[in-house]
Design goal:
Blueprint: E1 2-4, E2 13-17, E3 23-28, E4 36-42, E5 45-53, E6 58-65, E7 68-76, E8 80-83, E9 89-93, H1 94-99, E10 105-111, E11 115-121, E12 131-136, H2 142-149, H3 152-158, H4 198-209, E13 211-219, E14 225-236, E15 242-246, E16 256-263, H5 273-291, H6 356-367, H7 371-375, H8 392-403, H9 412-415, E17 423-424, E18 427-428, H10 431-444, H11 454-469
Antiparallel strand pairs: 1-2, 2-3, 4-7, 5-6, 5-12, 7-10, 8-9, 9-12, 10-11, 13-14, 13-16, 14-15, 17-18
Helix pairs in contact: 2-4, 4-8, 5-10, 5-11
């Protein structure tokens, strides 16, 4: 990553840093008017130059560097300044800042063996003219970028009572503050190991992020997608291996809808830092509600409502542990992801994966075979190995669900991307409300005052708390208090 230290403008430093944090090369700036930087003795390899506008406008260009010095230069049609923001180089044109009009941004970089390359970015009307410029190693793991967004310390702060840590005796509103801290759970059903560990989350991000798919659906005569009738071309980015999964019903329809490619490494990694933090907060808020271990306070709404106790996320691994063992074993209308006799498809994992129509596609995604989890849905929560159970699949299932559209529903990830139309039936909903609807809209969004529904209210409270911990302000105009009234997508 090309970054500027927190020094004042003069005597700043431009650094090329590996994803591991190792400084590859550094160069002092002579002053705020320096537009060109040479990085000396940069190793041969492929790098990606990425430029992002704060409104989401962005472009990327691959750099094949032959080794040796690497020169980076910018030129603008107005004055400029280099700001001292950690982990980014912020450049602003005076002309654009004053007029908020179409000042052209020209980015030029020179690499050994490629010569000069120039890219022009023209901001749209009203765009904040700040752009962030960074180098990224195309071989870095998705989890390495994720750790820049969400630290272990923040994870520990958000989920101190996760499975293996919390005591059920503490999961009620009368328990003293810090009840479960520093204690070893005994006879509580929690276990004595860290199932939803930070490391398990990172490994799940890399597992899922190694895959990209090209997704198409059959279409009805009215042009709408036929739910469940899909064709997926799946590529392993590490090996290049390609697998194709086609629901037979897909071939019976003449019309097709091509939804395009989905790169699962894009999980909370696309757009500006604000976009990414908001998406991450939304993801964490929803999995918290799905797995919360806090007690009967959640049954109180309206005038009797108690404050959210947001530290009890990731407490349950399965619905059945919480006393709900519904089979969720309805036959697939398309006859493809059918349940297996005697198997229960109740919620499991961080998102609480349910129903054969989710277990089957996730099994294809992870194992290349829908029957692995259709035959053994309990394997989303693998058996204990040694002293620790493996929570990787429990997180991977949640990330897979978050990233994968199920028409007519978009994916939760898509909702947080620039340009997504948040208006439905003449009403503009918050992006967060859309995620609630995608996950559980039929049960939680069908009313007219859903913010008073304890489930929606919990999700909103968790979202706001996690935004604060991540250092992100609540999006302007988000109007979370309106809940997701009437936002039922079917």
């Amino acid at each position: 990553m090309l970054s500027l230290s927190r020094n004042e403008f003069q005597n700043g430093e431009i650094r090329l840093v590996a994803p591991s944090g190792r400084v590859i090369s550094s160069e002092k700036l002579s002053g705020i008017n320096q537009t060109s930087v040479t990085l000396h003795s940069v190793a041969q390899g492929i790098y990606i130059l990425n430029v992002r506008g704060v409104d989401g406008a962005n472009f990327s260009s691959k750099i094949r560097h032959g080794g040796g010095d690497l020169r980076f230069a910018t030129s603008f049609n107005g004055n400029f300044e280099v700001g001292g923001v950690a982990n980014s180089r912020i450049i602003t044109t005076e002309a654009a800042r004053e007029s908020r009009s179409s000042a052209n941004f020209t980015l030029r970089f020179t690499t050994q063996g490629l010569g000069d390359t120039t890219v022009i970015l023209t901001p749209t009307q009203g765009m904040n003219p700040r752009i962030e410029i960074s180098f990224a190693d195309p071989n870095e793991l998705p989890s390495e970028r994720f750790q820049e967004l969400f630290s272990r310390e923040q994870f520990e702060r958000m989920f101190p009572n996760r499975y293996g840590f919390g005591s059920r005796d503490c999961a009620n509103r009368d328990a003293p503050a810090g009840c479960s801290q520093g204690t070893t759970p005994t006879n509580t059903g929690d276990g004595i190991y860290d199932f939803y560990s930070y490391n398990a989350l990172l490994m799940a991000i890399d597992l899922v992020g190694n895959v990209e798919i090209d997704l198409s659906f059959a279409a009805f005569n009215n042009g709408l997608p036929a739910p469940g009738a899909y064709r997926i071309e799946q590529r392993n980015k590490r090996t290049g291996d390609i697998r194709v999964f086609t629901v037979p019903e897909y071939n019976r329809w003449t019309n097709k809808i091509h939804l395009g490619k989905i790169d699962y490494a894009d999980f909370v990694s696309k757009g500006t830092i604000s976009n990414r933090r908001q998406e991450l907060a939304a993801f964490l808020a929803n999995i918290t509600q799905e797995t919360t271990g806090f007690g009967s306070v959640h049954l109180l709404v309206g005038a009797n409502a108690q404050p959210h106790h947001w530290t009890w996320g990731l407490y349950w691994r399965t619905e059945c542990e919480a006393g709900v063992c519904s089979p969720y074993a309805s036959p697939d209308p398309l006859g493809y992801h059918n349940p297996v006799a005697g198997k229960l498809y109740y919620g499991r994992g961080a998102k609480q994966l349910t129903h054969p129509y989710n277990y089957g596609p996730f099994s294809e995604f992870i194992f290349g075979d829908r029957f692995v989890l259709l035959n053994n849905p309990e394997n989303v929560i693998p058996r204990r190995v040694g002293n620790e159970e493996n929570g990787i699949l429990a997180f991977a299932a949640a990330i897979w669900f978050w990233m994968t559209p199920q028409p007519p529903k978009p994916s939760c990830h898509e909702v947080y991307q620039p340009g997504f139309n948040t208006v439905r039936n003449g009403r503009n909903y918050s992006r967060f409300a859309w995620t609630v609807s995608i996950i559980n809209g039929g049960l939680e969004c069908a009313g007219t005052n859903t913010a008073n529904d304890y489930r929606v209210g919990n999700r909103i409270g968790h979202y706001r708390q996690y935004l604060r911990i991540l250092g992100e302000e609540e999006p302007q105009g988000d109007l979370l208090s309106i809940g997701c009234d009437g936002l039922v997508i079917n």
